[in-house]
Amino acid sequence: MIALQKMIVVATVLFSATLLSLPSARAIELAGAWATSVDQCNKVFTRKGREKKIGFTNFSGVYGGGFIAEADRLRGKHEICKIRSKKESDKTINLVAACASSIMLSHVQFILNVIDENTVSREFPGMVDMKVEYHRCQI
Known about the structure:
alpha+beta; Lipocalin; eight-stranded antiparallel barrel; two-stranded antiparallel sheet
C-alpha cells in the first residue's frame, strides 16, 4: 500500500512539473515605444533628459506617429491615457482608458490584435475595416 501511495505522489509531481514547464498563453508585453512604421522609429521617438526617458520628436506626426506604453498608461504626442481596465483573450487586448489632452477629457477603447510580439493592429470600434498597424521600436 505504501508503494502505491509513493507511486501516486511521484506521478502527481511529474504531472505538475510537466504542466508548469509548458509555455503559457500570455498576451504580448506592451511596454515600450510603438510606431506605425518600424523604419521611422528614430524620427518618431527620442530619448530625453538625464534618465534617457522615451519621448516624441518635434515632428513625430509627420512620420506616422505612434504611442508609448507604460505599466498603467499610454502616451501619445498630445495626450496621456490612464488605463482603467484591461481584458486579454488569445490574441486580443481590449483596453479602456481615461485620456486627457490639453483641451478635453475622454474615455477611449483600444482594441489591439496581436500579430506577433513586435506588431499589433488597432481596431476602431464602430468603424468597419479601419485598422492601424504598430511596430515595436528598439530605441
